[in-house]
């Protein structure tokens, strides 16, 4: 055996002997000829960078109003908008409008998400379900939800039902499309695993199908939220007697740009908050995905 | 079967009182017009560790999937008798990425005791304390150990493994060999290990099969002292025989036992044993059955 060990030792020895000779690079010492590498990236992030643009806009707006370049009838001054907001809150109109609008959007979103998810599950788990459901949904997808408004008004009138149904129609499609996509993209190897472990259909759905489709579902939910607000804006401006959209429509008739701005800001805040909420859920629910990046 | 027609003594100890756990008769599987398994017979006894070798595309996975009942749509016939309580280990660890490690281990089990048993198996594969980790926080070898724990949590009577170490690096693979042997000795399942690695088959198995042209063409009991030394002359003899059965050309024995073995330091002494593909080992303890086709 010694004859075999020897070649290894002789091979190892020179390397081992060399090691102490090699000087370790001293940290912090710059080589004089080190060339500065030009950076191709955008550089270091600016603190509160996201606020710069909006603040600049606000400044321009304020300047315009101060100097009189911006007519009060074109666009109210920021401070006018602020005092109007105070008045609206004091009179309770703002809260009332906000509540009814949020209710409509929430109802439409809830039913739309439920319908989209159930349809996606049925279509994703059975071939018959897919054959029956997928075609009509794809056709519906090609028709913008708002294009159905005339028909919906004829069928349902102009009351709350019509409003909620319009939102539902806008919401369920993205939820269906993305959830169904998520279901179909579940790795067939996991299906095989479930079979080899003899999971029951219920266990299979709970452990494999639903978590596997969750990323798709949540993506669909984000689109759905955007759709819900969009549909809300439109239905609230058609023969409505309440809600943020009605408040804005009324303001348009009286040329009150300050109230219109308040409505816009409200829509913006609602959109941001709801998208943030979905993203938070996404982060929580998909934490298993981030573990490598962290 | 105490003696072989060729006059070889067969190691009878394992055969006397054990009934087969797996019994396959006339198994045929076809893809399109191509017959991949062609009237294959196979028996595996209680606690027996069987390795299945075969060229790529010879149908090893097809056989294993048939035994696991994972091929309902594949054309074919035959009789398959396997225990209901059997587990499968795939080449990839196949852990659900959205379930934590322990939840993955107990995926197929129910009941309050499942989590305790799952944690025990995890400890056995050396992953105690990683119960709450996500699968993608583990290395490839660790993931495959979780898969091993998952396969053993139900105390299966049969363990079916399809190249479970094929995707691992050489060092990890050697460690996994030791772990698998240890766990199989403790839990005593019958094992069918599909592999393309001849050394792995000899190092681990009680019996090595070669699948060729849709049938088992070689069925060799491996009798080697443990731990199994890759340099042991009989190890080399088995390897040469199996490589020949797999159609791997080797230089004549007089020059050594092939380039790979030569690097392991096999001196002229072992080469002079002159183990050829058709000859028996000098001490007569290699019992090889060339199944007639
Ligand atoms: N699902 C399938 N459809 C068609 N052919 C297949 C399928 N699975 C395996 N085969 C064919 O059967 C043969 C054996 O495959 P496989 O059992 O995977 O071989 P091995 O595992 O020994 O490499 C191959 O020629 C392969 O192409
Ligand atoms: Mg294979």
TrEMBL record, chain A:
PROSITE patterns: ABC_TM1. Pfam families: BPD_transp_1. The keyword Heme does not apply. It is found in: Cell membrane. The keyword Zinc does not apply. The chain crosses the membrane at residues 45-64, 107-129, 141-158, 164-183, 204-232, 259-281. Keywords: Cell membrane, Membrane, Transmembrane, Transmembrane helix, Transport. InterPro entries: MetI-like, MetI-like_sf. Belongs to the binding-protein-dependent transport system permease family. This is ABC transporter permease.
From TrEMBL, chain B:
One of its GO terms (molecular function) is ATP binding. Coiled coil: none annotated. It comes from the Bacteria. Pfam families: ABC_tran (PF00005). Gene3D superfamilies: P-loop containing nucleotide triphosphate hydrolases. This is Aliphatic sulfonate ABC transporter ATP-binding protein. The lineage of its organism: Bacteria, Bacillati, Actinomycetota, Actinomycetes, Micromonosporales. Keywords: ATP-binding, Cell membrane, Membrane, Nucleotide-binding, Translocase, Transport. Residues 271-293 are annotated as: Disordered. Residues 22-238 form the ABC transporter domain.
């Amino acid at each position: 055996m010694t004859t075999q060990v020897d070649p290894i030792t002789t091979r190892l020895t020179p390397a081992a002997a060399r090691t102490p000779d090699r000087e370790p690079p001293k940290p912090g010492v710059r080589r004089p000829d080190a060339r500065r590498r030009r950076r191709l990236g955008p550089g270091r992030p600016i603190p509160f960078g996201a606020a710069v643009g909006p603040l600049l806009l606000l400044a321009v707006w304020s300047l315009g109003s101060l100097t009189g370049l911006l007519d009060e009838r074109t666009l109210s001054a920021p401070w006018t908008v602020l005092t109007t907001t105070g008045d609206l809150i004091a009179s309770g109109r703002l809260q009332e409008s906000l509540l009814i609008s949020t209710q409509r959007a929430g109802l439409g979103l809830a039913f739309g998400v439920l319908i989209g998810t159930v349809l996606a599950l049925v279509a994703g788990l059975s071939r018959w379900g897919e054959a029956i459901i997928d075609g009509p949904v794809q056709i519906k997808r090609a028709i913008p939800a708002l294009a159905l408004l005339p028909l919906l008004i004829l069928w349902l009138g102009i009351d709350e039902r019509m409003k909620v149904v319009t939102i539902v129609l806008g919401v369920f499609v993205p939820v269906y499309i993305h959830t169904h996509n998520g279901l179909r993209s579940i790795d067939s190897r996991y299906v095989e695993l479930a079979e080899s472990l003899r999971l029951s259909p219920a266990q299979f759905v709970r452990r494999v199908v639903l978590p596997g489709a969750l990323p798709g579902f949540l993506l669909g939910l984000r689109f759905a939220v955007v759709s819900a607000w969009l549909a809300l804006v439109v239905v609230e401006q058609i023969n409505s007697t309440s809600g943020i959209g009605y408040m804005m429509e009324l303001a348009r008739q009286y040329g009150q740009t300050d109230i219109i701005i308040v409505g816009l800001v409200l829509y913006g805040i609602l959109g941001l908050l709801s998208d943030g909420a979905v993203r938070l859920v996404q982060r929580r629910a998909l934490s298993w995905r981030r573990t490598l990046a962290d | 079967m105490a003696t072989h027609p060729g006059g070889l003594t067969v190691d009878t100890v394992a055969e006397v009182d054990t009934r087969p756990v797996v019994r396959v008769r006339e198994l045929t599987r076809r893809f399109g017009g191509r017959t991949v398994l062609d009237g294959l017979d196979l028996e595996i006894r209680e606690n027996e560790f069987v390795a299945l070798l075969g060229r790529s595309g010879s149908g090893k996975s097809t056989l294993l999937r048939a035994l696991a009942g994972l091929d309902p749509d594949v054309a074919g016939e035959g009789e398959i008798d396997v225990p209901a309580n059997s587990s499968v280990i795939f080449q990839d660890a196949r852990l659900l990425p959205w379930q934590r490690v322990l939840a993955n281990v107990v995926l197929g089990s129910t009941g309050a005791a499942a989590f305790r048993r799952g944690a025990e198996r995890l400890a056995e594969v050396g992953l105690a304390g990683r119960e709450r980790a996500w699968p993608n926080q583990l290395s490839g070898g660790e993931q495959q150990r979780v898969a091993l724990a998952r396969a053993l949590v139900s105390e299966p009577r049969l363990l079916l493994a399809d190249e479970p170490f094929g995707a691992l690096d050489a060092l990890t693979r050697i460690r996994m060999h030791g772990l698998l042997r240890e766990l199989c000795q403790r839990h005593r399942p019958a094992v069918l290990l599909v592999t393309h690695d001849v050394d792995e088959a000899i190092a681990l198995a009680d019996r090595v099969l070669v699948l060729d042209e849709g049938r088992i063409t070689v069925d060799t009991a491996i009798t080697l002292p443990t731990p199994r030394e890759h340099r042991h002359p009989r190890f080399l003899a088995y390897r040469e025989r199996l490589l020949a059965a797999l159609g791997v050309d080797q230089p004549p024995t007089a020059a050594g036992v092939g380039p790979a073995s030569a690097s392991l330091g096999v001196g002229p002494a072992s080469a002079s044993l002159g183990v050829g593909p058709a000859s028996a080992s000098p001490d007569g303890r290699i019992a090889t059955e060339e199944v007639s086709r």
